């Protein structure tokens, strides 16, 4: 990619234990799993490197305890990494002084938490305005800004409520609004919807996508729910025992799983939900039928049409050029993988 | 598969045998030592004073500003403390002031607000010719406060409480006491929160502070008084200082716990919002810990009230000294009336501060000023109308004597008839308990070899927490061994032991009974809440009525006072057993009795042991207070004597003996209960 990465980390490590820095240095900044186990340390983040580009949603996905929260907290420097480098907008984040960090957080970073982390003694509007308040912005101004965002997240009319008077979904809307109050350049979300009921969760995901289509933030989104990851991600990083085992777009993970772990994870995914026609079509054939479908359509969207159709469907690119063909057989293989 | 199971069973069996071996060996040794104690030398049973006599004192006096070795022949540990106190009294730091000068100057910080509050509430500002707040206004404002915090019931209670003081002619006394509490409680709260904040800032400070707070909380109340007389003097202000010191620990502890308990996510949210460390403390951590802090506020108020009577021993004025005087002169009706006043104040302040704790912020519907602040409106109206009335009718300021009533004569007749009625039926206790029960137990304790006592504590410590705990407990009890007050200590231990046994006998069944049905739990919970707010001295009134002064009264007072936590922990423990487990037991075909004995009680047992722990701590407090009426040759008597002789060193020594016994049992039982809870997979404290 030609654009500059918004946020990137290089060989990031986080160890927990008696004296991680010393241990880390004494193993040449690359302790092996056996070293770590015998030293009595816990490796929460292991040699993680990746880039996040402007306007993209990177989802970090892994089972609980795989180090996702630790990773995202290292990226925002809520936790000091044991080793590695983080650069944010070209600046070395780990060299920023405490004061600079406060400044960066006040203007460039936003974070949403799994359990909302609202301040219980503050009303909705005061919670949302909190990051502005600590900057010393006066009351009228910060309330005006807070009101805008509250409207954006659909909570107008509840400004004077206290968090305890709201439902879980509403509370997380407040959390989202608070994190957006400072118009951050990078937005961290640590399992924001995991504490919500499935129905509400879907609703919030839609809401999130709607917001992102308006705001175009650069996002690191943590989840343990693969369905959620597929719905939201531009790229997915799969974490296992602190390390990122694979990082890429969904279909890459599914079609070329790097390890058995990733394969196990992605096995259950209905492929028609992310595979495009172009990925599975056959070569251009002469007796191509009257049904023509787009190359970039999802299989799931065209499956019914193709199955109903007697002959071979013709696949065309956006210019109407025939680029391939799709048969019932192709579709069936995707829809019923275990039978083939 | 079977093999593995069998081997594991065998392993458990053999480890059980191993576990049982040591206790049985030790038990056998203890029995031998007890039975054949006559064959061992005397120092075996009672540690001789010889051990601590003529100890070199690490004390240097400063005379004429030059250090000279002090010619002070110590006779026991008490003299060490006296030497330290002497130093603090006499040594001039920088040749300018002594430690006592500092404490006395600091006391002045208490005196000013104290005078102001008393002037405001009752005596009035004489220079300005303004009287204190008229009682009708006080009644009205108290009622509004209750209404604002909770509702009309609390409003009624607090209004009635203040009115009681006025109508029963206790206005002066009660308002003095109230002003004392209104000044000391905020000060204790401020100091406690301050200490808590410092502790959460520096870990080393917390490590030092926490044990000190533990010690302060297990020192008997009188332990505070004697040093205070030395460093502050006698009088109302000394009582105030004692009250503040006594109320600080729970606030400091709850501040530490509260600040530590703020969820890490909320802290992260604060950091991500860009808070500076100072903003983190004042805008995130303290507000987020508000709930716990408010619990601390409630506890501080209750501790202040607990000191109302005790502080009067060093000259605090108010209801306490009145109650004390009536008790000493056996004017039981009057004592009861003052007692009721104290109880009313305690219950009211408890409920008010609890309502404050529970009050959740709620969004207001915007509207007129009346809608937004109806309570301020009513309060203002009361003040205006009340002032107007007070200007017209002087009786509205302080109710004159002729208008007040007293029920003392009626109380006296009731008491007389009750005592007459109960005196004979209870006579068998008075007659038979001492010779057949109490005295034999006392003699057993007095002749129990100290090695056995120390051994039991250290051994238990070793089993529960390894050698570290054994040494800690050993140091605590060893201090008592060397204190040269061993026999008195064992008499106190005997009183506590008997009282705790009786407590368990009545409180445990009551707790089980109360846990069985919702209705019962509600009633018992209400009673426990109420009785627990009574300052300990109150419990002396009924027992003196029925049993006069003496050992039985002393024990009975403890039994009533200290049984309450046992009841509470028992029913709470039983009720907190997860419902699913109970349902599983029922569907497995358990009878209600089996559910209780096989499921509920085993799971609730750690909590019940924590209740027992509280009962022991309460007993240790009460045994010292009720020593006032007991007449035993125990530590309480010695502490009273030390106070009379102004022997601060001895007072501290004796108080420490009591505190160390409490700390040891507390440590052992808590460790056991938390381990047991962890093993059962229940949530543990701390
Ligand atoms: N403060 C800590 N001390 C020791 N171990 C920790 C600490 N925080 C996290 N860990 C460990 O690091 C690992 C990753 O934790 P976390 O990042 O919270 O996982 P996730 O968010 O993916 O559930 C876990 O094994 C956890 O036990
Ligand atoms: Mg997590």
Explain this structure to me?
The complex is a heterodimer of chains A (340) and B (686). Chain A has helices spanning 20-26, 33-39, 68-75, 98-107, 124-133, 139-152, 168-180, 198-215, 226-232, 250-255, 260-267, 277-280, 299-308, 328-335; strands at 7-16, 42-52, 57-61, 83-88, 91-92, 109-112, 186-190, 218-223, 235-240, 243-248, 292-294, 313-316, 322-326. With 340 residues, chain A is α/β, with parallel strands linked by helices. Chain A folds into 2 domains: 7-270, Rossmann fold (3-Layer(aba) Sandwich), CATH 3.40.50; 273-335, CBS-domain (Roll). In chain A, the strands form 3 sheets. In chain A, strands 6-7-8-3-9-10 form a 6-stranded mixed beta sheet, sandwiched between helices. A 4-stranded antiparallel beta sheet of chain A has the order 2-1-4-5, with helices on both faces. In chain A, strand 9 and strand 10 (243-248) form a beta hairpin. In chain A, helix 5 (124-133) packs across helix 6. The longest helix of chain A is centred in the middle third of the chain and has 18 residues, at 198-215. By secondary structure, chain B is mostly helical. Among the domains of chain B are: 106-361 and 391-417, Orthogonal Bundle (MetI-like fold), CATH 1.10.3720.10; 484-680, Orthogonal Bundle (MetI-like fold), CATH 1.10.3720. Chain B has helices spanning 2-35, 77-90, 99-123, 135-149, 152-167, 171-201, 203-218, 221-231, 236-261, 264-272, 277-288, 290-311, 319-328, 332-358, 369-372, 374-392, 408-423, 427-447, 450-481, 486-516, 518-533, 540-547, 551-575, 579-587, 592-625, 627-630, 635-644, 648-680, and strands at residues 60-63, 66-69, 92-93, 97-98. In chain B, the strands form 2 sheets. Chain B has a two-stranded antiparallel ribbon with strand order 1-2. A two-stranded antiparallel ribbon of chain B has the order 3-4. The radius of gyration of chain B is 28 Å and the shape is globular. At the A-B interface, helix 4, strand 6, helix 5 and helix 7 of A face helix 10 and helix 11 of B. The complex binds adenosine-5'-diphosphate and magnesium ion (MG). Residues 16, 42, 44, 62, 64-70 of chain A line the site of adenosine-5'-diphosphate (ADP).
């Amino acid at each position: 990619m030609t654009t500059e990465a918004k946020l990137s980390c290089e060989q990031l490590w986080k160890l927990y234990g008696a004296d991680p820095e010393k241990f880390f240095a004494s193993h040449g900044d690359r302790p092996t799993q056996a070293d770590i186990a015998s030293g009595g340390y816990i490796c929460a983040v292991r040699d993680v490197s990746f880039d996040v580009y402007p306007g993209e949603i990177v989802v970090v996905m892994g089972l609980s305890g795989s180090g996702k929260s630790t990773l995202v907290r290292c990226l925002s420097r809520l936790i000091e990494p044991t080793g590695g480098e983080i650069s944010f907008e070209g600046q070395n984040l780990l060299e920023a002084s405490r004061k600079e960090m406060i400044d960066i957080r006040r203007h460039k970073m936003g974070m949403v938490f799994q359990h909302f982390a609202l301040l219980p003694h503050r009303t909705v509007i005061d919670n949302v305005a909190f990051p502005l308040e600590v900057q010393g912005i006066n009351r009228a101004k910060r309330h005006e800004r807070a009101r805008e965002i509250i409207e954006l997240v659909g909570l107008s009319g509840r400004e004077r409520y206290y968090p305890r008077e709201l439902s879980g979904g509403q509370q997380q809307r407040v959390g989202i609004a608070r994190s957006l109050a400072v118009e951050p350049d990078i937005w961290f979300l640590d399992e924001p919807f995991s504490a919500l009921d499935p129905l509400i969760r879907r609703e919030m995901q839609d809401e999130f996508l709607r917001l992102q289509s308006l705001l175009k933030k650069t996002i690191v989104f943590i989840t343990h729910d693969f369905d959620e990851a597929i719905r939201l991600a531009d790229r997915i990083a799969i974490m296992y025992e602190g390390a990122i085992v694979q990082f890429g777009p969904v279909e890459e993970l599914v079609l070329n799983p790097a390890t058995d772990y990733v394969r196990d994870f992605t096995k259950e995914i209905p492929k028609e939900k992310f595979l495009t026609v172009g990925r599975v079509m056959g070569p251009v054939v002469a007796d191509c039928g009257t049904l023509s479908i787009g190359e970039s359509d999802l299989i799931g969207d065209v499956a019914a049409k193709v199955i109903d159709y007697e002959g071979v469907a013709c696949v065309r690119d956006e210019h109407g050029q025939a680029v391939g063909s799709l048969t019932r057989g192709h579709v069936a293989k995707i829809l019923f993988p275990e039978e083939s | 598969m079977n093999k593995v199971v069998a081997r594991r069973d065998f392993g458990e069996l053999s480890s059980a045998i191993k576990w049982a071996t040591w206790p049985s060996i030790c038990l056998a040794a203890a029995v031998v030592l007890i039975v054949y104690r006559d064959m061992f030398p005397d120092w075996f049973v009672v540690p001789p004073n010889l051990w601590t006599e003529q100890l070199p004192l690490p004390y240097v006096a400063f005379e004429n500003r030059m250090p000279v070795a002090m010619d002070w022949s110590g006779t026991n540990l008490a003299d060490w403390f006296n030497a330290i106190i002497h130093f603090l009294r006499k040594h001039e730091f920088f040749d300018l002031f002594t430690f006592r000068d500092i404490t006395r100057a600091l006391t002045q910080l208490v005196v000013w607000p104290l005078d102001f509050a008393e002037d405001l509430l009752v005596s009035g500002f004489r220079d300005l010719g303004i009287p204190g707040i008229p009682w009708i206004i006080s009644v009205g404002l108290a009622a509004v406060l209750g209404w604002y915090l909770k509702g009309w019931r609390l409003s009624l209670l607090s209004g009635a409480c203040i009115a009681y003081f006025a109508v029963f002619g206790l206005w002066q006394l009660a308002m003095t006491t109230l002003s004392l509490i209104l000044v000391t409680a905020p000060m204790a709260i401020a100091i406690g929160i301050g200490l808590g904040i410092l502790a959460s800032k520096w870990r080393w400070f917390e490590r030092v502070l926490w044990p000190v707070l533990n010690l302060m909380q297990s020192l008997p109340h009188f332990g505070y008084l004697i040093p205070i007389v030395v460093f502050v003097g006698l009088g109302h202000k000394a009582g105030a200082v004692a009250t503040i010191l006594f109320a600080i620990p729970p606030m400091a502890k709850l501040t530490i716990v509260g600040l530590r308990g703020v969820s890490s996510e909320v802290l992260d949210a604060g950091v991500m919002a860009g808070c500076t460390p100072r903003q983190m403390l004042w805008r995130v951590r303290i507000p987020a810990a508000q709930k716990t802090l408010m619990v601390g506020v409630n506890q501080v108020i209750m501790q202040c009230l607990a000191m109302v009577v005790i502080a009067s021993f060093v000259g605090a004025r108010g209801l306490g000294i009145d109650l004390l005087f009536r008790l000493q002169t056996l004017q039981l009706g009057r004592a009861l009336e003052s007692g009721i006043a104290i109880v009313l104040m305690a219950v009211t302040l408890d409920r008010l501060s609890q309502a404050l704790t529970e009050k959740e912020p709620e969004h207001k519907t915007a509207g007129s000023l009346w809608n937004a602040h109806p309570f301020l409106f009513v309060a203002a109206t009361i003040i205006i109308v009340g002032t107007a009335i007070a200007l017209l009718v002087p009786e509205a300021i302080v109710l004159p004597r002729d208008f007040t009533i007293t029920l003392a004569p009626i109380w006296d007749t009731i008491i007389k008839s009750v005592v007459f009625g109960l005196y004979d039926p209870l006579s068998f206790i008075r007659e038979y308990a001492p010779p057949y029960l109490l005295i034999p137990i006392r003699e057993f304790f007095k002749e129990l070899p100290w090695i056995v006592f120390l051994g039991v504590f250290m051994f238990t410590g070793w089993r529960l927490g390894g050698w570290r705990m054994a040494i800690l407990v050993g140091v605590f009890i060893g201090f008592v061994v060397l204190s040269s007050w061993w026999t008195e200590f064992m008499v106190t231990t005997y009183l506590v032991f008997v009282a705790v046994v009786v407590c368990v006998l009545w409180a445990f069944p009551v707790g089980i009974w109360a846990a069985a049905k919702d209705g019962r739990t509600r009633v018992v919970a209400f009673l426990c809440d109420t009785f627990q707010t009574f300052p300990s001295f109150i419990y002396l009134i009924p027992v003196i009525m029925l049993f006069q002064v003496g050992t039985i009264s002393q024990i009975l007072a403890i039994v009533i006072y200290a049984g309450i936590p046992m009841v509470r922990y028992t029913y709470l423990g039983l009720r907190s057993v997860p419902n699913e487990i109970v349902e599983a037991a029922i569907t497995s075909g358990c009878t209600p009795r089996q559910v209780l004995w096989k499921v509920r009680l085993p799971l609730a047992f750690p909590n019940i042991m924590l209740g027992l722990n509280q009962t022991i701590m309460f007993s240790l407090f009460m045994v010292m207070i009720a020593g006032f009426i007991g007449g035993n040759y125990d530590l309480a008597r010695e502490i009273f004597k030390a106070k009379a002789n102004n022997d601060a060193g001895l007072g501290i020594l004796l108080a420490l003996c009591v505190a160390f016994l409490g700390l040891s049992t507390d440590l052992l039982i808590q460790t056991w209960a938390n381990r047991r809870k962890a093993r059962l997979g229940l949530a543990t404290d701390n």
